Each structure stands twice: as C-alpha cells, then as structure tokens.
Amino acid sequence: AEAAITFKGATINLTKDIDLSAYCSKIVGSWIPIKSFYGTFNGNNHTISNLFCNTTDRAGLFDSVNDAVIKNVVINGAIYCTDTYDIGCIAIRANKSVFENCIANVNVFAKNDSDATGPTIGGICGQSDSSNFIACQSKGDIICSIRKSYILGSMGGVVGFDLNNSSNIVACCK
After folding, report:
1. What is the DSSP string of 19-82?
2. The whole model's pTM is what?
3. Partners of 144 in the beta sheet?
4. Please, which of 1, 34, 38, 103 could form a disulfide with 74 given CB 3.0 to 4.6 Å?
5. pLDDT per residue over 93-137, tens digit each?
C-alpha cells in the first residue's frame, strides 16, 4: 500500500505534454501539491503547463520529495500566495533527492503579512536537505513582499533554503 501512496520504488514516465488548466485555474481553483513522493519522476523532456496555485498554504507541483529523482521536465505556470512559508515551483521540500535537467518557468507572487515565520521560496525547490540539483533552470520571476519585522525567511533562484548546507547545486542558473 505504501508504494501506491508515495510511489516508493516506482518510476513515473511522462509520455506527452500535460495541460493542467482543466484541474487548476482561476475558475477551477488552486492546484493541491502531490503530498509525498519517493520514486522517480522522468518528464522525458515534456512540459507540464498551467500549474496554478492561489493559496495561503504551501505551494508547488510536489509537496515533499524524499529519496526521489525528478528529471527532464519543464513546468510552466503561476503561484500566488499570501501568508505562506514554503514555496517551491517543482518541490516545496526535498530530502536526499536529485533534480536533473528541470526547468521551472513559473512566476511566483508571494505576500506574507502574518506572524508566522518568514517565507522560504525557491524557483525549483523551497527547502532542500542533502539533495543535488544538476543542470536546472529557474526562468520565472519571484516577487515577494514580507513584513518589515521579519528577520527570517529566504529566497533563491534554484533553492530557497539549504538546510544544514548539505545540498549541491551544479551547472544551474536563474
């Protein structure tokens, strides 16, 4: 049952481009991130278009990837967040995972006026721990407004925050 929920040990191969506009849009509603992913996601150089998030919660294609491989995929879309703390266009959080040849062409508009911890925003991944990013590109704009009183929070073109300074970013660009 665990493999069916987390895709542990499974490989997901995209065989064609995907348009998410029927599942998430200003009319349909916000994308809900794929919860926990432990497998391999191979986009086979296909594009996932029209990712749309409008939320006060965490935002991205995947919520948490663990011991996972995400590769050869292009994501296009927009994320609008208020009072949120974790945004990653492809993965909100990554632990011991590999991202290779991923392109996020996602514009992020975040506003945080809450008393919560400052935002963690990354063009590919919001927060990373012991993960590798190889030949990834973040092409979207990241526009963030936070309260003046915040001293915490971080943003990055590829990774917003590298927990324990344990991740590697190789040949990536913003």
Report:
1. EGGGTSBTTTBPPPPEEEE-SEEEEEEEEEEEEEEEESS-BSSEEEEES-EEEEEEEEEEEEEE
2. 0.91
3. 110
4. 103
5. 999 999 999 999 999 988 776 665 667 889 999 999 999 999 999
